Amino acid sequence: MLFSRHRTHLPTPEEALKGRPEPGFAVPDRHTVLGNPLTGPYPEGLVVADFGLGCFWGAERKFWQAPGVWTTLVGYQGGHTENPTYEEVCSGLTGHTEAVRVVFDPAVTSYAALLKLFWESHDPTQGFRQGNDVGTQYRSAIYTHSPEQQSEAESSRTAYQSVLTGSGYGEITTEILPAGPFYAAEAYHQQYLDKNPAGYCGIGGTGVSCPIGVAKAEG
């Protein structure tokens, strides 16, 4: 499957794997770093945001390190197959991308701050890949939970496109869509880089900072 068309071709609902009505594995109760529950329902007043920015191991760590984040959870989103497995997602036959669910306290941080972290933590111009990781499951995505999130995400994309273009990058390929079902990933993927500090992390940004605060990032 390494070089098959499925890795760079999103399946239609008819082409996608059928899936299953219930997940085939259990998800841990609590976050290994933050100590809070992984799955909802979450405490009143917290807000959910969903992002895809390449391999979810490194992506999740970016967000659990951010101020105001209450918990994070990795999973699969944006596709057709119900309750997929990691192997199925990697086949390219589910349509999902590797996603991070971020639950945050809006009294401490903001959706805008998380969007800034999202844009600056990866290269959103690469289509069905992120660095050396190739496949539809590595595509850049924002899945929104309100009209306000949708509008803010779209505005941030426009702002970041402007500074990326000025720095010689191409068109942003990030999909911004209302959130559909989020399927939690297997236990060994949750907080993977906390359990395996020397593990693989394919996350890397462009070096161009995103508004809030438009400037060339140092480094």
Which descriptors apply to this entry?
alpha+beta; 18% strand; Peptide Methionine Sulfoxide Reductase, Chain A; two-stranded antiparallel sheet
Notes on the protein architecture:
It is an enzyme of class 1 (oxidoreductase). Has an important function as a repair enzyme for proteins that have been inactivated by oxidation. Catalyzes the reversible oxidation-reduction of methionine sulfoxide in proteins to methionine. GO terms for molecular function: peptide-methionine (S)-S-oxide reductase activity. One of its GO terms (cellular component) is cytoplasm. Its EC number is 1.8.4.11. By secondary structure, the protein is an alpha+beta fold. The chain has a domain at 45-192: Peptide Methionine Sulfoxide Reductase, Chain A, CATH 3.30.1060.10. Helices cover 22% and strands 18% of the residues. The chain is built from five helices and eight strands. It has a six-stranded mixed beta sheet with strand order 7-6-1-3-2-8, covered by helices on one side. Strand 4 (129-130) and strand 5 form a beta hairpin. Helix 3 (111-120) packs parallel to helix 4 (147-166). The longest helix is centred in the C-terminal third of the chain and has 20 residues, at 147-166. The chain is globular, with a radius of gyration of 17 Å. The termini are far apart.
